[in-house]
Amino acid sequence: MYHGEWTRDKKELLKYDLVLTSYSILGTEFEQDSPVNQIEWFRVILDEAHVIKNSTARQTKAVIALNAERRWVVTGTLIQNSSIDLYPLMAFLRFQPFSIKSYWQSLIQHPLENGNKTGLSLLQNLLGAISLRRIKDTDIGTKSMIKLPPKTVLECYIDLSAEEREIYDQMELEGKNKMQELGDRDSILRNYSTVLYFILRLCQLCDDVTLCPLDVKSWLPSNSLEDVSTNPELLKKLASLVDDGDDFDCPICLSPPTKTVITSCTHIYCHTCIMKILKSSSSRCPICRRSLSKEDLFLAPEVNHSDEDGSGNTRSDRSLSSKVQALLKLPKTSQNEDPSSKSVVFSQFKQMLILLEAPLKNAGFNILRLDGSMTMKKRLQVIKQFAHGGPDTPTVLLASLKASGAGVNLMAASTVYLFDPWWNPGVEEQAMDRVHWIGQKKEVKVIRLIVKGSIEERILSLQEKKQQLISSAFGKKKKGGKDDKEMRLEELRVMRGLDKGRPVAGCRPSEACHI
């Protein structure tokens, strides 16, 4: 296990048949005197290989530079955003000429951008030649390596209350005006993080108004990132932003940060971990490689939630949001049909999971929570407890989409609730697969909770487009391509409501519930 207090001795690593490490560690040690970089490996296998989709990222460069006789990549989400995601995988596999960026662009990327069928045909032939695709068999007559019970995905549409709708519409209008102020294409892309932050806040409004401030000026992250090294108040705001919903681990020790430190380049580490880096010869940020000194480090203020211990009293003095009310009705129906059934509720916001605890307990559910603030030991305990059967066992697991979306076994459940949609369909698919995977005996039902007339419907539209791209790459549908920047710009315009987008597919009345 090459992480934590790992060895610096090449001979020590050579004693083992198998070495397990992480992408972030490889990135941290890239271009350093690391034993991992000194060994000629027989085989290097990348699990969740889509992590290296950014060819300019330090960890991607580190992985590609590893010395190995044989190279494999394993992923359930080969393409997440556009066909350019595939290039770093070709570079790692050293599959010439596609591992050479100029060849990739001329043979595949540029033809796809121009809608030339030869680019798509070549991409399909390439993937067919070098990949093994394992699909799950839930339909009679489907040829598959994996036999599983059926999985049904439904959309549950929710109407906001009059008060919620007024707040949402006002915030969305101000967000649209802000994006239009940014002007042309290049201006929008330069302010990409600002626009994404507006989108994040609108998604939070769909979940529960209390998740975000109602002052649009406070939605702008650009100031908090720009002057964080000189303004303690903005630093505090950045810390609360991170605590607001993003589960994260220190990229050095791979555990939730203790005594959290924020750098002037806005990266987050454990105090102990980053101090070790400063004492080394590099003295650079492991993520962006910016030179760091003690003056660039700021201790994050502790932000404690009133219900962090799960006591469940945050809702006693106010009404429930429309989406929470909708969720409370659904598990009851499942339990009436099957008293032994268990459910998993996924959300991208940790604070939303905390807010859900009290109403679910008051409704009579025995619940557990699983999020990125927990140590790995605690996470394993929660998963084991959830899997246990019998009376008085937990029936609902509140799970972080990031912390629980991959690598955990949640097959004790048979129902999945996606409380808020994520714009990358692959992330949602991985979350569903924690329940619908080898060993599952029951039919699995997945219910997406979608607010009508909101950014959530536009996210579903974008998911459909990305699914079409993935399908076309494997030869199922024909579709032209666009360059990465144009796709990003289109995504921003659709999600900000400047472009209505396409109707959401697969939402026939018989396959959706309306609340």
TrEMBL record:
Gene3D superfamilies: P-loop containing nucleotide triphosphate hydrolases, Tandem AAA-ATPase domain, Zinc/RING finger domain, C3HC4 (zinc finger)
Gene Ontology biological-process annotations: DNA repair
One Gene Ontology term, aspect cellular component: nucleus
Swiss-Prot/TrEMBL keywords: ATP-binding, Helicase, Hydrolase, Metal-binding, Nucleotide-binding, Zinc, Zinc-finger
Keyword Nucleotide-binding: yes
Helicase C-terminal domain sequence ranges: 323-493
Helicase ATP-binding domain ranges (all copies): 1-96
Pfam family, one: SNF2-rel_dom
A molecular function GO annotation: ATP-dependent activity, acting on DNA
Tagged with keyword Calcium: no
Domain RING-type: 250-289
InterPro entries: Helicase_ATP-bd, Helicase_C-like, P-loop_NTPase, SNF2-like_sf, SNF2/RAD54-like_C, SNF2_N, SNF2_RAD54_helicase_TF, Znf_RING
Family annotation (SUPFAM superfamilies): P-loop containing nucleoside triphosphate hydrolases, RING/U-box
Protein family membership: Belongs to the SNF2/RAD54 helicase family. RAD16 subfamily.
PANTHER family per the UniProt record, alphabetical: HELICASE-LIKE TRANSCRIPTION FACTOR, TRANSCRIPTION TERMINATION FACTOR 2-RELATED
Protein name: Uncharacterized protein
